[in-house]
Amino acid sequence: MKTESPENTNDSVRNVDVVGGIALLPDSLFFYQTIEVPKRLPKKQLNEWVYNTIVEVAPLPMDQLLWGFVERETAKSGHTVLWYAGLKERILSVIGDLPDGLHAVPYFALGFLLAQEGGQIFTGDKFASVLVGEKIFGFYKIEEASFSYIQQCLSTSKMEIGNQLTRVKIVSSNVGYSGDIKLVAECKSLDGSVKMRDITLRTDIIWNADIRDKALIKSLKRQRQVDRISQTGIRTACVFLILLFSFEICLMGTKLCLLCKESTKNRLQPKALSIESKDFLVRKIQGTVEQEIRPFELLSTLNDFRPKSIYFLSAMVDNLHNVVVEAIAETAIAAETYRQQLDKSGHFESVTIENMTTTYQGTKFTLVCDFKEKNKTSFLALDSPS
After folding, report:
1. Which end of the chain has fewer CB atoms within 10 angstroms, the N or the C?
2. Model confidence pLDDT, tens digit, residues 350-359
């Protein structure tokens, strides 16, 4: 939220300067005190401790006052609190009814949070609050708050700050989601140089600084928390709905893809069944042919290595790789030589000779051959089945 001018607010806040979510109240409406916070004081008890301190000092009952406080770290790693309070009727007569979205804070309270070494003229559109370090010096109308006049006032009060005098003005602000306020301050020195400074005011600091009725502040804080939770819930629900919608789109895309694939499958299924049937038929024919041809193939292999001195009398093939041959050779040496040749050919698991006998015709023997298993082959080409 950018800096608002008074013209952008309603009539009830025309007597104060509005900077973002902060309504700056005249310093003259308040009495104040700066005190050190006890080091062992728990953070949760700070509000109660400040309240009790004001009760001890205030000349009026607390129910007739509006009060608040700001705190900042000191150079000694401690904390300093600036508390302030003012007569409720007087303050309300000046500021009227502020919108709930504005935090009512005195000029010097915000200047105290931004204070640095030397003098500082913290200005708004109508007024200026002057601080020396963290000490509050005076409150002036904006037309009076020139460098020369403030220097003269400081000199009269015997407060020498040399050239360390800066005019500070909030030029923009932004209220974060958690309630933090981010300020951009323009810092102009005596020599005319200008520097920009970024300041972040935490939510707890802003609420503690607000001088409005504490019961109202408590109610507003709770309301803003509920609003943030509601906004978070709405955003979460929107994100969930977007994710759900995206999931539904992905699911629809997947269904369309499956339908496309199912259509392709239905279109190609008859052709695939035809190819499968042809392949099955061809392989059955191939198996039948191989079973019929295999015995002749085995006997042909035996015959290729047979010398002319050996004759086959009979052969028996009991399966696709076992052959028993009755044969006759001129000598036993010729039969053994034949066996060795077969064994070395690489076609057999084993080759043995049994029942060798010698007759007037020659040497009879039984050749037992165990062929190696034949690799299955296929002569079917299905590149373009019809």
Report:
1. C
2. 899 988 888 8
CA angle (142 as vertex; 139, 144 as ends), nearest 5:
75
Bridge partner list, 351: 369
CA count, 13 A, side-chain hemisphere, 238: 6
Token pair of 291, please? 């079973």
**Number of Cβ within a 10 Å radius of residue 87:** 16
Per-residue confidence at 4, pLDDT binned at 50, 70, 90?
very low
- How many C-alpha atoms does 171 have within 13 Å on its Cβ side? 12
Looking at residue 334, what DSSP letter applies? H
Residue whose entry in the numeric block shows the structure tokens 């999931």? 247
Confidence grade of residue 96 (pLDDT, cut at 50, 70, 90): confident
Residue indicated by tokens 């600091």: 205
- Structure tokens that stand for 257 in this block: 């893809």
DSSP letter string over 29-85? Answer: G-EEEEEEPPTT--GGGHHHHHHHHHHHH-SS-GGGEEEEEEEEE-TTS-EEEEEEE
Residue 128 reports pLDDT greater than 70: yes
Beta strand pairing status for 135-141 and 165-175?
unpaired
Q: Which residue has the tokens 């507003």?
A: 220
Strands 103-106 and 79-87, by their bridges, are unpaired
